[in-house]
Write a structure and sequence with these properties.
With 202 residues, this protein is of the alpha+beta class. 30% of the residues lie in helices and 16% in strands. The strands form 2 sheets. A 3-stranded antiparallel β-sheet has the order 2-3-5. A two-stranded antiparallel sheet has the order 1-4.
Length: 202
C-alpha cells in the first residue's frame, strides 16, 4: 500500500518467477520405462503414450532373451492439463519435472498438444533442486544404506582380525620354493661376553 506499483515491461523484460513455478512439464526420456503410471493417474487423461516391445539378447552366453518397452510417443495436451502435478509425483523413475517455462501460447487450441521433442527441450529449463537443509533429518534410505555399509565394514574387519590370529605372520618363514636360511655358526658359538668385548674393542 505504501510502495509505488511497478510495471514489468514484458516481453522486453523477463519476469522473475518463484523457484517452484508450475509452467510446463519437461520429459527426461532416458528415465521413462513406459510404465503408463502417469497416464493412468492423470485426472484429465491428457497424457498420450505409445510404445512397442523389443527383444534384448542375453547379456551372457546361455542366458535367455528379455523384452523391454520402447517409447514411441509421449505427448501432453496442455489444453486439458490442470497443472495438478500428479503425474510428476507418481512417476517412480523421475522422468517428469516442472519447468518454469510459460511461453507456449498458440493461436490454435490443437497446437497445445506438445510431443516428446518439445517436452525434451523444456527439460533443459528445469532449475536445479534446492540444496538440502543441513539441520534436516537424514533420509531413511540414506540412513539404511549408511548403516548397512558400516556393518559390512565391521564384519570385514572382524574376519581379517580372526584370520590374522589363526595364521600369524612369521618373519623367519622362507618364501615358497626356497630352503630355510642356515644359521651362522660363529654367531651361535659366540657368547654374550665375547660380543660385549668385541663391541668394546671396536
Amino acid at each position: 500500500m505504501t510502495r509505488r506499483s511497478v510495471t514489468e515491461h514484458y516481453p522486453d523484460t523477463q519476469p522473475e518467477l518463484p523457484p517452484r513455478s508450475r509452467g510446463v512439464i519437461g520429459l527426461f526420456e532416458e528415465n521413462c520405462t513406459v510404465c503408463m503410471l502417469c497416464a493412468r493417474e492423470c485426472p484429465d487423461w491428457c497424457i498420450y503414450i505409445d510404445s512397442h516391445k523389443e527383444t534384448v539378447p542375453p547379456a551372457a552366453p546361455g542366458g535367455r532373451e528379455r523384452s523391454r518397452n520402447v517409447l514411441d510417443r509421449f505427448a501432453i495436451d496442455f489444453a486439458l492439463c490442470m497443472y495438478c502435478g500428479i503425474c510428476i509425483e507418481v512417476c517412480p523413475f523421475d522422468a517428469l519435472f516442472w519447468s518454469p517455462e510459460f511461453e507456449y501460447a498458440e493461436t490454435d487450441i490443437r497446437e497445445l498438444t506438445h510431443e516428446r521433442d518439445t517436452l525434451r527441450e523444456w527439460m533443459w529449463t528445469v532449475p536445479e533442486p534446492p540444496p538440502l537443509d543441513e539441520s534436516a533429518e537424514e533420509a531413511k534410505e540414506v540412513a539404511a544404506a549408511r548403516k548397512a555399509a558400516e556393518k559390512a565394514t565391521q564384519v570385514a574387519e572382524a574376519d581379517m582380525l580372526a584370520a590374522h590370529r589363526e595364521h600369524p605372520a612369521e618373519e623367519t618363514a622362507a618364501p615358497a620354493g626356497q630352503p630355510p636360511p642356515t644359521p651362522d655358526p660363529e654367531a651361535t658359538d659366540r657368547t654374550p661376553k665375547d660380543q660385549d668385548t668385541r663391541g668394546g674393542a671396536e
